[in-house]
Design a protein that fits this description.
Rossmann fold; alpha/beta
Length: 303
């Protein structure tokens, strides 16, 4: 898909971070875009930016309140999108929404673990199922699922459990890779890509605090606010830069899109010596490629 002009795109988690930047850049490229999120206020800000970036006034940008972990809600979202665009099809689906939580299967609550997994994996599953017929009805389509470096390396350091998020992102990666063959057999005009970002300047910390399952004390909320600013402001790559890499990858037909130098470094290291990926020095080296003390603070607050 060399051009997005005139195409209909759907972005989950469009209120902030990479989702917001995907919406804005798609609209700037002439695509009609529908987004969903759990924050109406954030989506309205995204929509305003997207409409301002659009090359023409007839580029449609719509917002839809929806929890991606709820299959019924995603089906209603699908229906609303098709109605909003007066269409029987969409061309692009970005299953982007995600949050953190449920670090340990031993010490964290079942509710926290399930909430993270349900948003990060089932949100991708429900999104794909909801929009599959509409994608297949298009003349060309593309499914873009956001995994993570934690989709091929299940760690944020040797002493910090990270099970729910890692399990979900591994599931997203495997699901997406399996879809490649599925689409080639059943809908060869629908392409598939998996996105694996490293540390990107997004609002995942803030969103996890706001929409996650765990109730935070006032003191924890204050610490999280500081951690959110540090995570966002000190990231080696901005959300806008990440969105550009993703869209360039879609245009190039890449099925595997690594986002950030840290993602590339981690991928190289794990592939070179997978047996050592979670052991001693290797784990410490990989950890240093991915994260810093500020991210450790964030994860401690979720434990």
């Amino acid at each position: 898909m060399q051009s997005f002009a005139g195409k209909i795109a759907v972005v989950t988690g469009g209120g902030t971070g990479m989702g917001r930047e995907l919406v804005v850049q798609l609209a700037a490229a002439g695509a009609h875009v529908s987004m969903c999120d759990l924050s109406t206020e954030n989506m309205e800000q995204t929509a305003s930016l997207a409409r301002a970036a659009a090359p023409a006034s007839d580029v449609r940008v719509t917002t839809h309140l929806c929890d991606v972990s709820d299959e019924a809600a995603m089906l209603l979202f699908r229906d609303d999108v098709l109605t909003a665009h007066d269409s029987d099809h969409v061309n692009l689906l970005f299953n982007n929404a995600g949050l953190s939580g449920g670090g340990s299967i031993v010490t964290d609550s079942r509710e926290s673990w399930d909430r993270c997994f349900d948003v990060c994996f089932h949100g991708v599953r429900w999104g794909t199922l909801a929009f599959l017929d509409a994608l297949m009805a298009s003349d060309e389509g593309h499914i873009v699922n956001t995994s993570s470096v934690n989709g091929f390396w299940a760690s944020i350091g040797p002493d910090r459990p990270h099970t729910a998020y890692s399990a979900a992102k591994f599931a997203v990666k495997g699901f997406t890779e399996a879809l490649i063959t599925d689409m080639r057999v059943n809908a060869p005009h629908v392409q598939v890509s998996v996105v694996m970002p490293g540390h990107i300047g997004t609002s995942i910390v803030q969103n996890s605090m706001r929409f996650g399952a765990r109730h935070l004390t006032e003191e924890e909320q204050e610490l999280m606010a500081v951690a959110d600013r540090m995570f966002h402001d000190n990231a080696p790559m901005t959300a806008a830069e990440a969105a550009t890499v993703i869209l360039d990858g879609v245009r190039a037909g890449q099925w595997r899109i690594l986002v950030g130098d840290d993602a590339v470094a981690l991928d190289t290291a794990v592939r070179a010596d997978p047996e050592a990926a979670y052991e001693g020095t290797m784990s410490e080296i990989l950890f240093s490629e991915l994260t810093t003390a500020r991210e450790a603070l964030v994860e401690q607050l979720f434990d």
